[in-house]
Amino acid sequence: xxxxxxxxxxxxxxxxxxxxxxxxxxxxxxxxxxxxxxxxxxxxxxxxxxxxxxxxxxxxxxxxxxxxxxxxxxxxxxxxxxxxxxxxxxxxxxxxxxxxxxxxxxxxxxxxxxxxxxxxxxxxxxxxxxxxxxxxxxxxxxxxxxxxxxxxxxxxxxxxxxxxxxxxxxxxxxxxxxxxxxxxxxxxxxxxxxxxxxxxxxxxxxxxxx
Length: 210
Description:
The chain is α/β, with parallel strands linked by helices.
C-alpha cells in the first residue's frame, strides 16, 4: 500500500505536533507490560513512549514510506521493536501471538473494515489482554457530525482513506470489553477543514474470549 504524498504530510505533522500529542500517547500506553502489538504503527511515534515494563513491541504498517520511517524509529529504541509490513486486515497471518496488549493509535479511521481488523487482532491476543485506543471519531454534536459526513469523501481521497465520519467507538465496544473512555477535542492551530477530525477518544479495555 502506498500513499506517498499523504504519508509524508502525516509524518511531518506528527513530528511537529509531538509536544501536543505526546501526553495523550503516554496516557494511551501507561500501564502496559509484556509483548505489545501495535496495529498501524505509522512512523513509530509511540515507540519511545512505551513504559519500561513492555518487553517487546511488534508494529504492523502497510504504507511503504511510513513502514521505512517506523523501521528507523525502531532502530533507535532501547527496547526490542519489530516492524512488519502488511495490512491490518491480515494481522493474524503476519505476527505470532500471544500478545499481552494491543494498541490502536489513529488507525481505525483509515482501514476499510475496522470490524475485520479488530477480529483479526483478537486471534493473536492472550486471554485478558489489554486493549488501548486513541482515535478520532464521529462527533456527538449533530452540526459537526453533518459536516464530517459531508466532507468525508473528499477528505478520504486526500488523506489516505481516513474517514472523519466513522463511529469507531461503537465498533470497538462491540468487539471488546471497554471499561474507560475519555472524549476530547484535539486539533492544535485548527482551522477548517481540519476541525472535522478534532473529536477524539482515548479508550481502554480487555479481550475476554467468549
